[in-house]
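Lab notebook, bench 4. We co-purified these components, and the gel suggests they stay together. Before we commit to crystallization screens, I want a quick structural picture of the whole thing.
Request: model the full complex, all chains together.
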Amino acid sequence: MTISKRTIIYVSDGTGITAETLGHGLLAQFQGVEFRPLRFPFLDNEEKARDCLARINEVGQREGVRPIVIMTQTNPDLSAILHKADAFFIDLFDTFIAPLEQELDCKYTRAVGRSHGHANPDYNTRIAAMNFALAHDDGVSDADLKNADIILVGVSRSGKTPTSLYLSLQFSLKAANYPLIPEDFERDQLPSRLQPYRGKLFGLTIEPEQLHRIRHERRPNSKYSSLENCRYEVAAAERMMRREGIKWFDTTSKSIEELAVQLMQELNHER
Amino acid sequence: MTISKRTIIYVSDGTGITAETLGHGLLAQFQGVEFRPLRFPFLDNEEKARDCLARINEVGQREGVRPIVIMTQTNPDLSAILHKADAFFIDLFDTFIAPLEQELDCKYTRAVGRSHGHANPDYNTRIAAMNFALAHDDGVSDADLKNADIILVGVSRSGKTPTSLYLSLQFSLKAANYPLIPEDFERDQLPSRLQPYRGKLFGLTIEPEQLHRIRHERRPNSKYSSLENCRYEVAAAERMMRREGIKWFDTTSKSIEELAVQLMQELNHER
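Here is the predicted assembly.
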């Protein structure tokens, strides 16, 4: 099969993150095509719209096939300029806003991706969550664990840090994480500092072979990274979590987003 | 004006992040309506689809108005079950996949939000970027600055850390950040460690009044947080960045996403 190539042009009066997120989801369904992205964020005046129109047509002429434009543009005048291009349009506002107006019996108010700077309370909650995650990464501090929304436990390099940071930045959760280390397995007890917070504890685990590969990159040929030790630590951690009734998730073949959403679901069940 | 309330139901066979991102963008346009979200991620079998169908109808009956369902569901059988609900549907796959098939002359391959676990090279690049950002936060280490994709500078609490972490998690960029401190202003020189990396330096600044509020929360009634000192530091930092030809952005009323996308644009121009 020959792989065809197509240029995808993301246009937005905001960051374009919504358009691009949708684009990734849709285009991932077409594995026979290679996509090349071009981005036009913050397109918020007529001059930029005309420049973009020219670029779209230029790309189409050069490539001999019209580009695909994925667009979130709240300004109908700018939208009209862009629609003059010879392109295949996926226009999220055009497609959904008018039907939504009818369904909600409400005119839309054209709010360009609103700014959420320091003046916005959501922004401050989010930054506070991130600072909490940074301060409580890898068991660095247990001063404030009672204020955590969630505490992740697991062996070193099982994925606790990226998951905690993502939970804080994306969902404004105060996420702490705490390592389970060989000393804990020897004592065969959950670290005593965590005991009061059973309700917020969730575990991460990982296949020993994968853990071995990750640790080997960091510290080659060490006991820490040996397959034998990885097997021992993972088995011991899972045994401890099972005994303590801590629900855990295997990170081996999950994205950070998948883990984060699964944990959010668990928290909503708990609450 | 009376505010009406509507339930928004996000349904996906993946995380639902795409559906929710689009939902936020669309619904932000309707300020006269209060929206209550319900989430059904990982809906990947018939039983879950039937449960969800029942829930959608139940919500509609209870509230006396049909819910709005925003959906990314790649399985047409499950999609058909859900569409039996009495709801207003925004169905991203239904709406766009068939026209895209025609445009691309390619059948879609039904890839549920693919897993990007440790086995995926993109995952590893992303984690490496995040580890880099953590290791190079707030000037902690300058061992490896030559490998940074971008280095953010600015006064303490101007927004460097959240922006760096977001750039690493979202765009897999190796983002370092380095504080500009009173000693730098007294010497009136860019820290010498940064001198070799002019091409990767970008600045963040912030309105002194806002900086004062943020610092005051951390260290009330200190010289550090006084409005006078905040004014001095911000003016000195901007003067230095101007002289050194470092492009900077004001974070006062910008979201982390907006800053990150603007910086990405600058990097693409530079390269």
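The domain at 4-104 of chain B is CATH 3.40.50 (Rossmann fold). Worth comparing against the SEC data before the next meeting. Chain B has two domains: 4-104, 121-270.
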